[in-house]
Amino acid sequence: MSDDIHEVYAVAYASHGRMRSENYVFGDPHDEMTSITYYVWVIKGPHGVFVVDTGFDDVAAKERARTITHPVGEGLQALGVDSDKVQHVIATHMHWDHAGNYDLFPNARYHVQDTEMAYCTGRCMCHQMLRIPFSERDVHAMVGKVFAYRVEFHDGSEELAPGISVHLVGGHSKGLQCVRVKTRCGHVVLASDCCHLYSHIDEGRVFPITYSIGDTLEGYRKLQKLATSRQHIVPGHDPEVLKLYPAARAGLENWIARLDVAPRV
Ligand SMILES: [Zn+2]
Ligand SMILES: [Zn+2]
To answer: Per-residue b/e over 106-123, b at no fewer than 16 CB within 10 Å?
Structure first.
């Protein structure tokens, strides 16, 4: 096996029903109920397991009225990943739905952009509107990891292992990064919240929680450049991902999808 080819999985762990208009700046003319899905992602390959984002736990779910469908740890187990042994966690950004479960990976190093850490601990958090998607507990936990020498900072684009790289995009959160993974089917880009839903990138629309609309829109171009094709971009919250890609194995339908395959178009 080549040393830069990886398997990639989307692991769904929660969902939330909401009005379609809540997903877009300027709303949506079809004001009906829809849902978003919450994921973490797993990269497996010759350099071990990289977990992308850590999701949220029961306590956070109750606080924000979300429904956990399968706890993150359970999804990892179903993929044969022992969270105690995971060495690398990539934190795409520090929003509450991506940066919780902070005790689940006791032996991991965390990969974070300089800008995101400065953002979530700096003056912008004095503004209620910008602070909404952050949890003080998550930020404290990450600061604790910094002092425990468990955080590796990145500034812009950096390769973490052959075939796995992170790229600063910003926009939705100031230091948001995406992850590019080389697979047997080309370069897959885990967009996380650089693109919440397929409709955002396909229609040039923007999710309402945003630090910079301009950087969000420019980010879509960056995702397109990094991915082998538009079909290789995996949005952060679209329920369609579980329908477009096959289950990782029988029994994991609507829960864990394998992303290093040609998606159904
Ligand atoms: Zn976010
Ligand atoms: Zn999110």
So the answer is: eebbbbbbebbbebbbee
What protein residues have CB closer than 5 angstroms to ion ligand 2? 97, 193
The CA distance from 254 to 265, in Å, is 18
Are 15 and 36 in contact, with CB atoms under 8 Å apart?
yes
Residue type, 48: G
Q: Which of 260, 93, 87, 265 is nearest to 181 (CA)?
A: 260
Distance CA 232, CA 185 (A): 9
Note the pLDDT tens digit of each residue in 232-257: 999 999 999 999 999 999 999 999 99
Q: How close is the Cα of 226 to the center of ligand 2, in Å?
A: 20
Query: How many angstroms separate the alpha carbon of residue 69 from the centre of ligand 1?
Result: 19
| Residues with pLDDT less than 50, the chain | none
CA of 82 to the centre of ligand 2 (A): 24
pTM: 0.97
Determine the distance separating the centroid of ligand 1 and the alpha carbon of 254, expressed in angstroms. Answer: 22
Contact in structure between 114 and 175 (CB atoms under 8 Å)? yes
Output the CA 66–ligand 1 centroid distance in Å.
15
Contact 195, 219 (CB under 8 A): yes
